[in-house]
């Protein structure tokens, strides 16, 4: 009986070992990446390795899209032996060559078979030999006619190569094979050349660095076309791994820091949160249809192809004709290609910590107790960009953090997020410290709510103070384009120029209180709009053309909406008929007290925006205004003229009362 039990146990153990040794993965790349180290020492792995050796050309590279674990016939083996002496179809596209090198490294680690080491080294030599003098790599080497000669970032080809070469150059333990010192030195030089190529191919859009194209011309280094449906464009996918590679470099140069910061800003600018991908699968789980559906606050995604000048996503079928949405192209390309990706979220997730670590003063120690951060374009401050200074601010600080911005024109989109409270953003001078950007509704192109993404400066943090700055939306009179967007509570803006056209200033928040003092605010249509309670004191409100000054969306039951005290209403010569306001929402409240109104103000004063019900539910009022535009005899009947007693109740303390008393006096 004991003998039978022993026999059963041996059979069971043998079967268990056999099952563990079998390779569960069907895809070649998964076999390499996911297999346990011990598997590479099995007979099964050695059998696969013979195939891999056969597929490798004498030049050192491998062809792509081959399931090398599949058993070969004798004829196939003979054919591969014939091909070995050629360089036919050797490439780094779709992970080819770099993944086979990893396989050989894992095989050598388990077996110490010199053939695997030699194979790996031939592959490494192939990569070094294929590199252009400018640091880039073609898709195929030996060179293959057509777009294959372009510097290829497509499907992360060049990043994969650089990661291999860096591991050799840094002499890490990632690969089991240790090349000679001569080869290590060659890899160091090769890596540096590759990074230099990346920096030189980063695309400048209106003078501002953005991201990369999937292919760049090997001579001019400019974006280049590939297949008919792969037109030159900024890539929301390939640019991700490039940026992450640059971010992984220890002690980066100033050029690398600049490249990463601009790439991250571009990803932030081009993210899409208004669409979600919807897939239709058949019974076998295969995609049979794919479409994009509108969504609210969807997880961010990025288009694979974006216009080089406008960042607008586009899509192509095999006819090479650009379309504006994927439903305009055929099912074969629509369902068989990755048109959107969420990969860039990794860049934005890692970027804040990276930015703190790698300010413009590369390698400088990070301040533990931050109270003053200086921004200067000449490098004399802590940072050269305002957004980088914001990234360096602690979250929810106990003490105020001042970002002092020296004179200069800062062409950037700045966001002070809700966790950056108690921030003072202060310019050296209102006239010469300028934050400017040129987004507008059409340029953003994110659907019907695109306006809210057009800001130049967005203040979401509570208890913030903005002063001595010019904040400009430079897109021109081309539709909605916000200069300053304020959504945080208890935000004070003083001695600032707010410049734009339609929708210059957005003040939002159901219970938010905002205070604008000694500011110059100009625009065209509805250039002061939103739902917050906002007090404007001693401000110049300048209309560029005949239209509307305010468009309040005051929530029902809110005591105050927009209140203008001691302000001066001026206009350009072209602006001859300007309304004080109209109701964006029917409970709008707007009041002008002791203001000087130019002759450009229409005698009717207010307009109902084709909303008759607003005439009963809105509250538009005036008191003691002066100037040609202040005549009240022809004001619309549903507006109000306050008495002296009523007007006396509109004190700053009452209007701006919040849990933090007299916050507006800081």
End-to-end Cα distance, whole Å, is: 92 Å
Q: Tell me the number of strands.
A: 36
Oligomer: single chain
CATH topology of the domain at 27-201: Glycosyltransferase
The percent range for strand residues is: 15-25%
Estimate the mean pLDDT confidence.
91
Rounded radius of gyration (Å): 32 Å
What is the overall number of helices? 17
Q: Briefly, what CATH class of the domain at 27-201? A: Mainly Alpha
Strand order of the largest sheet: 11-12-15-18-21-24-27-30-33-35-36
Tell me, what's the shape? elongated
Supply the CATH architecture of the domain at 27-201.
Alpha/alpha barrel
The biggest beta sheet reads: 11 strands, parallel
Which structural class do the helices and strands define? alpha/beta
Residue stretches low in confidence (pLDDT < 50, at least 5 long) are 1-21, 360-368
Residue share in helix: 25-40%
Write the layout of secondary structure elements.
Blueprint: H1 2-21, H2 28-34, H3 43-55, H4 74-83, H5 98-111, H6 114-130, E1 151-152, H7 157-169, H8 181-201, E2 204-205, E3 208-209, E4 215-216, H9 238-247, H10 254-270, E5 275-281, E6 287-294, E7 302-303, E8 315-316, E9 322-323, H11 331-335, E10 340-341, H12 345-357, E11 372-375, H13 386-391, E12 401-405, E13 408-411, E14 414-416, E15 423-427, E16 433-437, H14 441-444, E17 457-459, E18 465-467, E19 470-473, E20 484-486, E21 491-494, E22 497-499, E23 505-507, E24 513-517, E25 520-523, E26 528-530, E27 533-537, E28 540-543, E29 548-552, E30 562-565, E31 568-571, E32 579-581, E33 589-593, E34 596-597, H15 614-617, E35 619-623, E36 640-641, H16 644-648, H17 652-655
Parallel strand pairs: 11-12, 12-15, 13-16, 14-17, 15-18, 16-19, 17-20, 18-21, 19-22, 20-23, 21-24, 22-25, 23-26, 24-27, 25-28, 26-29, 27-30, 28-31, 29-32, 30-33, 31-34, 33-35, 35-36
Antiparallel strand pairs: 1-4, 2-3, 5-6, 7-10, 8-9
């Amino acid at each position: 009986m004991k003998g039978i039990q022993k026999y059963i146990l041996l059979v069971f153990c043998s079967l268990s070992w056999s099952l563990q040794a079998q390779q569960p993965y069907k895809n070649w790349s998964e076999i390499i990446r996911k297999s346990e180290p011990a598997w590479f020492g099995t007979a099964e792995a050695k059998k696969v390795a013979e195939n891999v050796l056969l597929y490798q050309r004498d030049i050192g590279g491998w062809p792509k899209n081959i399931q090398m674990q599949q058993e070969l016939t004798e004829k196939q083996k003979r054919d591969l032996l014939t091909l070995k002496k050629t360089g036919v179809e050797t490439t780094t596209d779709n992970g080819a060559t770099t993944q086979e090198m990893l396989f050989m490294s894992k095989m050598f680690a388990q077996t110490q078979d010199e053939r695997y080491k030699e194979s790996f080294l031939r592959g490494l030599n192939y990569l070094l030999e294929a590199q252009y003098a400018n640091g880039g790599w073609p898709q195929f080497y030996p060179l293959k006619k057509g777009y294959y000669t372009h510097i290829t970032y497509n499907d992360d080809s060049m990043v994969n190569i650089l990661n291999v070469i860096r591991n050799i150059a840094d002499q890490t333990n990632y690969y089991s094979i240790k090349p000679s010192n001569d080869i290590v030195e060659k890899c160091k030089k090769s890596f540096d050349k590759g990074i230099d190529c990346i920096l030189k191919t980063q695309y400048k859009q209106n003078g501002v660095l953005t991201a990369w194209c999937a292919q760049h011309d090997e001579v001019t280094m400019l974006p280049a076309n590939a297949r008919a449906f792969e037109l030159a464009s900024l890539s929301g996918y390939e640019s991700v791994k490039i940026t992450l590679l640059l971010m992984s470099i220890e002690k980066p140069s100033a050029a690398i820091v600049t490249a990463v910061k601009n790439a991250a800003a571009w990803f932030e600018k081009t993210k899409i949160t208004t669409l979600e991908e919807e897939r239709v699968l058949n019974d076998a789980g295969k995609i049979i249809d794919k479409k994009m559906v509108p969504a609210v606050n969807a997880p961010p995604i990025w288009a694979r192809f974006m216009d080089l000048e406008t960042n607008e996503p586009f899509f192509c079928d095999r006819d090479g004709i650009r379309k504006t949405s994927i439903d305009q192209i055929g099912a074969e390309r629509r369902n068989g290609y990755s048109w959107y990706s969420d990969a860039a979220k990794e860049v934005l997730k890692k970027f804040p910590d990276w930015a703190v670590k790698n300010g413009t003063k590369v390698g400088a120690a990070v301040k533990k107790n931050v109270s003053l951060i200086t921004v200067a374009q000449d490098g004399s401050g802590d940072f050269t960009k305002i957004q980088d200074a914001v990234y360096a601010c602690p979250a929810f600080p106990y003490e105020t953090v001042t970002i002092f911005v020296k004179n200069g024109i800062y062409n950037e989109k700045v966001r002070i997020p809700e966790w950056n409270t108690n921030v003072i953003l202060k310019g050296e001078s209102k006239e010469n410290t300028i934050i400017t950007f040129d987004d507008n509704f059409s340029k953003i192109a994110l659907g019907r709510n695109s306006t809210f993404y057009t800001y130049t400066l967005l203040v979401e943090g509570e208890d913030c103070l903005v002063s001595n700055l010019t904040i400009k939306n430079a897109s021109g009179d081309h539709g909605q384009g916000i200069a300053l967007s304020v959504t945080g509570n208890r935000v004070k803006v003083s001695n600032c120029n707010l410049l734009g056209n339609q929708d210059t200033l957005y003040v939002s928040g159901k219970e938010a209180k905002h205070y604008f003092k000694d500011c110059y605010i100009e625009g065209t249509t509805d250039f002061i709009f939103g739902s917050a309670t906002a007090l404007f004191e001693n401000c110049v409100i300048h209309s560029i053309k005949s239209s509307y000054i305010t468009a309040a969306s005051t929530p029902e039951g809110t005591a105050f909406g927009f209140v203008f005290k001691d302000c001066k209403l001026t206009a350009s010569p072209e602006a001859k008929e300007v309304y004080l306001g109209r109701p964006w929402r029917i409970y709008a409240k707007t009041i002008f007290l002791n203001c000087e109104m130019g002759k450009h103000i229409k005698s009717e004063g207010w307009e109902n925006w084709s909303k008759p019900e607003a005439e009963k539910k809105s509250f538009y009022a005036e008191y003691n205004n002066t100037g040609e535009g202040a005549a009240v005899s022809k004001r619309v009947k549903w507006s109000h003229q306050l008495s002296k007693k009523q007007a006396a109740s509109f004190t700053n303390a009452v209007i701006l009362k919040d849990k933090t008393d007299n916050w507006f006096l800081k």
